[in-house]
């Protein structure tokens, strides 16, 4: 499993969020189910499609984004389409 870290948040919560993600990754890669349950909120939501676009000769991966509240992961978003990866480094303004 390759893990690529993106830019960290500039606020004081960034360190805590990084530690939660590191604990999540350690539990996932070692098969530590009790450790995994400690970092996931009881009502965690996982968003992502089960299908993947495969380009001949290309590599496919999954980009994962987390929402962390009160020291636990409450949402996991996964993107597996490599064509969407090109925008991962861009800031996007959200509006209602």
What does this entry look like structurally?
This protein is α+β, with helices and mostly antiparallel strands. The chain is 25% helix and 24% strand. It is built from two helices and three strands, in the order H-H-E-E-E. Strands 1-3-2 form a three-stranded mixed beta sheet. Strand 2 and strand 3 form a beta hairpin. The mean pLDDT is 76.
In short:
The protein is of the alpha+beta class. The chain has helices at about 15-30, 35-40; strands at about 40-45, 65-70, 70-80. The longest helix has 17 residues, at about 15-30.
- Give the percentage of residues in beta strands: 15-25%
In which range does the helix fraction lie?
A: 25-40%
Read across the widest sheet, the strand sequence of neighbours is: 1-3-2
Task: Write the H/E string, N to C.
Answer: HHEEE
Radius of gyration: 15 Å
Total number of beta strands: 3
- The number of helical runs is 2
Q: Pick out the low-confidence regions.
A: none
Straight-line distance between termini = 36 Å
Going by helix content, strand content and strand pairing, the class is alpha+beta
